[in-house]
């Protein structure tokens, strides 16, 4: 089973679709409890967005979070902020700093996890960097989205596009709750580590054919 996608009808857009639209929509799909996100510039203007609420509300929240990030950034007693997480009684927010003064904001429901998947953010921000021409922030290990078929026990059987059969070599231990990890060998002898997070979203530590672009995401 590959990563699940929501079937809810998204609101009518109030701006043209850009190449960032798929990337932002995919981030929402990958983070449990997320329902909207936006890419904003240094002035808080929305470059693009995706979400299940009115576009004006997404843009307004993103602009305010951009201001919060700027205020924290100007505080000389703190190091340069990379991410700010705000957890409220009714909803939560995450704002992350990007190159060239841009920021990524994510809106989550009140019961969403306080620490959303860093793999999901890494995949999103790398794709944004490639599309925008920024230099991707490299970190170890680097994770890539991948489609995975599983058997009745939830163990990988096929990966990639086109599909390649895999043999499970072993399971990873010490994984966080609701995560599973496997070391697998493809039919052509390549060994890959696969991790499944919430939303049945899979990640690989080696780049596969469909991960070279971002075409697997859906347009919102």
Global geometry: elongated
> How large is the count of helical segments?
3
Secondary-structure content class? alpha+beta
Write down the overall mean pLDDT.
Answer: 84
Instruction: Please provide the count of β strands.
Output: 12
Give the strand order, joined by hyphens, for the main sheet.
6-12-11-10-9-8-7
Taking all Cα atoms into account, the compactness measure Rg is 18 Å
Extract low-pLDDT stretches. 1-7, 210-220
Helix content: 10-25%
Largest sheet: 7 strands, antiparallel
Q: Report how far the terminal alpha carbons are from each other.
A: 22 Å
Strand content of the residues, in percent? 25-35%
Along the chain, the helix and strand elements come as HEEHEEEHEEEEEEE
What does this structure look like?
It is a single chain. The protein is α+β, with helices and mostly antiparallel strands and 220 residues long. The protein has three helices and twelve strands. It has helices at residues 21-30, 55-73, 118-132; strands at residues 34-40, 46-51, 83-87, 91-97, 103-109, 144-145, 148-150, 156-159, 164-171, 180-186, 191-197, 201-204. It has a seven-stranded antiparallel beta sheet, with no helix packed on it. Strand 11 (191-197) and strand 12 (201-204) form a beta hairpin. Helix 1 (21-30) packs antiparallel against helix 3 (118-132). 33% of the residues are buried.
